[in-house]
Structure formats: C-alpha cells, structure tokens
Amino acid sequence: MKKLSLVFSFLIIVQLGFAQEFIELPYEESTTVKWEHQEKQYFSEIWKTEVVTNVSVPTLQVFQPKKPNGTSVIIAPGGALYAHSINSEGRDVAKWLADKGITAFVLKYRLVPTGQDAVQEYSTEGKTDPSRITERIAAVFPLSIADGLSAVSYVRENAKKYQLDPNKIGFMGFSAGGAVTMGVAYNYKEKDRPDFIVPVYAWTSAYPVQEAPENAPDMLVICASDDSLGLAPGSIEIYNSWIKAGQRPELHMYAKGGHGFGLKKQGLPADHWIQRFYEWSVAQGITSTSN
Predict the structure, then answer these.
(1) What is the DSSP string of 172-199?
(2) Contact at 8 Å (CB) between 253 and 220?
(3) What's the longest Cα–Cα distance across the chain?
(4) What pLDDT is attached to residue 11?
(5) Are 231 and 254 in contact (CB under 8 A)?
(6) What is the pLDDT at residue 10?
C-alpha cells in the first residue's frame, strides 16, 4: 500500500535563524519487515550520544534558513541501521548548513525493528552472532534506500516552496547513512537523482561499492585512515570508481578521526571536514556565498 505524504508539525525557531518543519514521506509498506515497538529517542550510554530507534515511517526534519541560497542537502545519520545518531550526524550538521544559507533535511530512514534498547541489541549481537546483524540489515537496506530516493523526490517536487534550485540537491550520509547515500546514487531515476553526494565514512563492508552510475553526481568522499571499522579502503574504492567513470570526485582522507566523528570535537583536523565540504561546494558552483 502506498502511503501519502503528510506534514504533521511545523515550528518556527526564531532565535536560531531558521524554520523547522516535520514531514512524513511517501513510502511502500514492507510485506516482510514488521515493527512491534514505537519509534524512540534516548541517550545511548554505549555510544555516548542521542539516538533514534525503531523508525518504521520515513520522515524529514527541515532546517530552512531565513535567507536560503538555493542549495539543499538531505542528511542521513549513521547508526548501523539499528539507530540514528540523530544529533552529531544529523541535526547538528543541519544547523551548521542552515547557518550557511543551505536548506537541510534530516532524514529518518527506516531501521531494523528492535526492542527497547537497539544499541544494546546491536552490541550484543556483534559479540555473539554477527551473522544475525548481516541478515537483519539486508532485509531493511532496500527500504532505507527507497526512503532516501523518496526524500530526493520530495525536495525536488517542493523546490519552489523552500526557495531551492531543483538542480542543487545533495545527499550526505554517515556510516550506514553513507551506505544509503551510495544506494541512492546507484538506483536513482531522473526525478530522484541527487545532484551531488557526500558519503562520510560510508559503510561499504555492509553495502559493497559498485560501478559509478551513468551521469554520476558530483561527489566528495570523507573518511579517516584510522576508522575503527576499517572503512578507509572502501571510501578510496568509491572515489576510484568515480575516477574510472571519467568523473572528478574529491577525497578527504584524514590520518586521525576514527569512526563516527560527525560534528564531534576531538581537537583534530577531521573536526573541520564540514568546512571543507562548504569550500568544495562553493568551488563546484553548488553553493552560493551571496547570502
């Protein structure tokens, strides 16, 4: 059954200089994946960050600047497909971009159905039954990617409403969200093609690198050589696949940063990756500095 898009809340945040809107995206209900628990947000003591779990309905949280410059970025947080690291890889990124005049959309794509503490569940399975993780994420990845494509379609269809250029829509994802980013890049059609992508320490061990698509979008790849999940080679492989296709991607591989740095401050050059993204987007003509 096809679900219809629904705007379910609207809030103006005057002191931060941008408006926020919450949107339920259209999606196809799964016949095989079922959620028994409600979506939940809490602070994970294991990951030491705020997370959202049990997402069964894809949504966008819109961060719209007072003076949009026409560029937009859809942000897909990471969290192993069991959770969303909603602040450091989501809302904090959106606020930074909105401050630069870029309209940001934080995407909560569908996640693996879990119990009351998804992070604990993931941690336990990682130690006792890693194959169970592989099995569970394989069932959900197609839904998550479909949600990413739905998000691009929504932004493009509503470009006028948000004062956006329909040809300057980007998709940025972290870890599992980086895998969703690549899934969007490999599976788009004209209406849901992102104009640029930013895979940040993309989870290529869970979603393998493929050949670059025809008419591949502009791309900036971010990762750290000391990524604790060993994702640096996969990021290089993504970069090389674009090179082989005759594209001109950019790669920032930091010596230190680890995995999951997002907008966390570690006192390292990797702390400033988002400023490098902004500089790249200006140099590519994706973002205007006129605002």
Answers:
(1) EEETHHHHHHHHHHHH--GGG--SEEEE
(2) no
(3) 54
(4) 45
(5) no
(6) 44
CB 237 within 8 A of CB 202: no
205 SS3 class: coil
Whole-model pTM: value is 0.94
Q: Where are the alpha helices (DSSP H) in 26-129?
A: 92-99, 118-128
Number of H helices, E strands in the chain: 6, 12
pLDDT tens across 44-68, in order?
Answer: 999 999 999 999 999 999 999 999 9
pLDDT tens figures, 126-165 = 999 999 999 999 999 999 999 999 999 999 999 999 999 9
Count of C-beta atoms within a 10 Å radius of residue 117: 19
CA distance 7 to 78: 24
CA dist 20 and 219 (Å) reads 27
Task: Please give the structure tokens belonging to residue 23.
Answer: 């949107």
